[in-house]
Design a protein that fits this description.
A hairpin with a 4-residue loop joins strand 7 and strand 8. The strands form 2 sheets. Strands 2, 4, 5, 6, 9, 10 and 11 form a 7-stranded mixed β-sheet that branches. Strands 1-3-8-7 form a 4-stranded antiparallel β-sheet, with no helix packed on it. Helix content is 0%, strand content 57%. It is globular, with a radius of gyration of 14 Å.
């Protein structure tokens, strides 16, 4: 069975940095795309960043130039490096893996950015 576990969230001041991790247990084959989503209270879940199987990345306009998504395949872990954080980045962040067979979600990790 596949399980995704996010970690690295917390409280940080505006302008600070956090690195989120998404560790996968179990074997996932035929991955199409992996990514990070976030959801603020009262709002819909939105895409933050994608990294495709070939390495191409995609970012929401609101985080371009500040966030970087990357992975370490040997460790079965995907990361989201978040720099120059803003209060509007406050949300629950979720790891997502889309394979040819199934879509997997983590339980989420909370990020709070204070002014």
């Amino acid at each position: 069975q596949v399980q995704l576990v996010e970690s690295g969230g917390g409280l940080v001041q505006a302008g600070g940095s956090l690195r989120l991790s998404c560790a996968a247990s179990g074997s996932i084959s035929s991955i199409i795309v992996m990514g990070w989503y976030r959801q603020a209270p009262g709002k819909q879940r939105e895409l933050v960043a994608h990294i495709f199987s070939g390495g191409r990345t995609n970012y929401a306009d609101s985080v371009k130039g500040r966030f970087t998504v990357f992975r370490n395949n040997a460790k079965n872990t995907m990361y989201l490096q978040m720099d120059s954080l803003k209060p509007e980045d406050t949300a629950d962040y979720y790891c997502n893996v889309d394979s040819a067979r199934e879509t997997y979600w983590g339980q989420g990790t909370q990020v709070t950015v204070s002014s």
